[in-house]
Structure prediction request, 243 residues.
Amino acid sequence: MGRAVVEAARGLEDMVIAQGVERPGHPDIGKPFEQGELAGRLEDVLDLVDAVVDFALPEGCELRAQLAAGSGKAYVTGITGLSPEQVKALGQAGVKAPVVYAPNFSHGVNLLYRLAQDAAKSLGPDYDIEVLETHHRHKEDAPSGTARKLVEILSKASSAREVVHGREGKTGEKPLRQIGVSSVRTGDVVGEHTVVFGGPGERIELTHRAGSRQAFAAGVIAAVRFVRGRKPGFYSMSDVLGL
Prediction:
C-alpha cells in the first residue's frame, strides 16, 4: 500500500511525497527517496511534511499517531488488525490534529457499508447474515479489517446477538440473529468481501471485488486532501467521501 500511495501521488500538482520512513535497520535507509531520503524514524521527518500516511504494522501505531498529532501534522492510516485500545489511541490523537482511520479506503467498499446497513434494516431478523472475505495468502490478520467493520455495522443494524467465526463439526441449526464470518487466504487476491442475506425462498448478495490497490490508494489521496486545513478530529472515510 505504501508503494501504491507513492505511485498515486506522483505527478499530482497539489502534493508531493516529501519523505519516506522504514523500519529501523532497513537496508535502504539513507538512500534517495522522492523529495528527500528514506529515514528510520518518523520524528526525523515531521518538520518536512504536512501529513503522515501510515501503512506499517499495527505495533507502534499509537506512538506514530501521537508523534504526528503532537507536531500538528495530520495522520492518515488504514492499518488493519488494530485492537480497541489502539483505535481509542487514534481517537485521542485526533484531539490535537485531524486523524483519518479507515479499514478500507475504497469508495466502493465504503458504499458497501451503507448498502449492507440499509439491507439489514430493511430485511429484518428473518434473514440470515453471513460475511465472507478473501485475501492474498500473505495477509497476516483474519478476518480483515473491512470484514470486521461490516460485522460491526450489520450487528447494529440487525440487533445481532452473536458473531461466529467459521464453523466446524456438528454445529446444529443456526440461531436467529447470528452473523457468521468466514475468511479465505489464497494466491494474490487483493480483496473480496461479500455479505449474504438469506431468507425464505431467496438470497441477496452484496459483493465488492478489488482488482488492484489503486482503488485504495485513490481513497488515501482523497483523505490527504480532506485533512488539509481541517480542524482536529477523528474522521472516517464516510466523512471524507461525504457518505
The helical segments are 2-9, 61-70, 84-93, 107-123, 145-158, 214-227, 237-241. The chain has two domains: 2-101+213-241, 107-210.
